[in-house]
Amino acid sequence: MTSLFSFPPGFHAAVIGGAGDIGAAIANLFCDLGATVTATAVDEAATRRSQLRPRAGLTIRPLDITSDTAVEAFAKSHRRVDALVNCAGILARDKEYEIATFMKVLDVNLTGTFRTCLAFRPLLAQTKGSIVNIASMNATLALPRIPAYCASKGGVVMLTKALALSWAPEGIRVNAVAPGYIETAINEAGRQDRVHYDGIAERTAFKRWGQPADVAGAVAFLCMPASSYATGTVVAVDGGFLAG
Asked: Is 1's pLDDT higher than 80?
């Protein structure tokens, strides 16, 4: 008998942005729990920097999520997908006030998420699968230097809710996880400011920044049978930052 807190035999996940820090933690955990995973990287350099652990059952492939053609071809190359995890994302502090940069951030973070959801919909309908989109604490807590990132993650939250309602008749569940301050390459430069770093840690209930593995567990749960009645929800993984 399959446990509600495990993946069924043959479970396969596509982790978009799986070469990133949070994406790699998710892909590694899924493999640890017995799933097979196809993880994507934007380019070869991203693959080399990745914390993905080579193993049987893990495939890493390049993918440009701003390309309709590339995303559609990538989805069609799969025979079965039980879970789609969207965690590809970028930000550009201060430069997001330039229209071209603003649009690029939205194209990757929001439209890219929608592209992959659309492309994988037929496969997920066949397996009654689930989608987990990586949103952000910045979907509700704005920061002045990253307007496009904040807007895109707010959009991801509402996209998640809309797709959850639209695709429920097909048996597809759509949820999101909203990380808080997680130690990743995207904020490495800012973490060099010790006053800033300690101030963030002090604001959390646990008095520390999160780690990518802290996010992965929530994503895995949302793809398991134990969460079969959860859809359209956003799970905050922020160490209690927004609770105070």
From this structure: no
